[in-house]
Each structure stands twice: as structure tokens, then as C-alpha cells.
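Incident log, structure service

09:12 report received: a user says their structure output differs between two submissions of the same chain.
09:20 pulled the input from the user's history:
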Amino acid sequence: MSVPSVNRRSTLLFTALAAGVGGLSISACTSEPSDIGSFALSANPTTLTAAAGAAAVTSAITITRTAPFAGAVALTVTGTPVGASVAPVSAAGATATLSVQATAAATNNTYPVEVRGAAAGLADATTTVMVTVTGGTGVGGPCPGCWDY
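09:34 re-ran on a clean worker, output below:
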């Protein structure tokens, strides 16, 4: 029987051989884990205030890669404030910009905006920017269907 992979960093192979009647020989070999690197995300600043109808506010998203990983990281954003827009972010380099602009109809509240990074073969990484919307005329909470009374 062969077990091809215990996890993506190490492989363990078991081989059992029957040697004649009643005889059994078992051998095992292991390989050392190979480092494939990793990455982490951070935001600066981690809090933003977006005034409704005003210019966009931004946060620099830094991608810190650990060797030997040097590949591209695809970024996605969730938690966009009600009545606001978030500019798409992508990064082949070390930084990306998260841009948030609240319309006049935006809903006043504080929203956790999560930026998630994904790269082939590696665990995802996240960072959160807290965005406070002020001066908006919208009614609602931090998500569609969630209302402030």
C-alpha cells in the first residue's frame, strides 16, 4: 500500500512486502519537508474614515513574501460598506492600494473590510481595514438587510 502524501510539505511512503508463507517485511522511508515559502498581508493604515460624497480614502496593502516564494498574489475584498465602492486590488509586486469611496447615499457605520490574498499552493492570508463611513444619508447596517434603529 502506498500513501502518496500526508501533507503538501512532506511525503511518507510505506511499502509492505510479503516474503513467502507467513513472512512479512516492512520498510519505510521519509523525505524531509521542502520549504515552499509563504506570504503575509498587512495594511497601513488599518483604520479609514470615508466621508460620504468626498474623495476616496486609501490604505496600502503590503505583501511580505518568504523565500523561496516570489509569485503573484491575487487579492479579493469583502465587507464593502453599504453605498460605497472599493477599487479592485491586485499585486504582482510588494504593495497594492485599497481604495474606498462612499457615495452621498452611503450608510453611516464602521465596516470591517477584509483583504484576502491567495497564491497557488500556499495558505491564504488576510488583513482587515476598519472603514468608518460618515455623513451618509443611507439607512441600514454593516450588511444588506441589517438595519440600525
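09:41 both user submissions now match this output. Likely a transient worker issue. Closing.
09:42 reviewer note: Residues 1-21, 144-149 have pLDDT under 50 and may be disordered. The beta strands are 12-18, 24-30, 38-44, 47-51, 57-66, 74-78, 84-86, 95-102, 109-118, 125-134.
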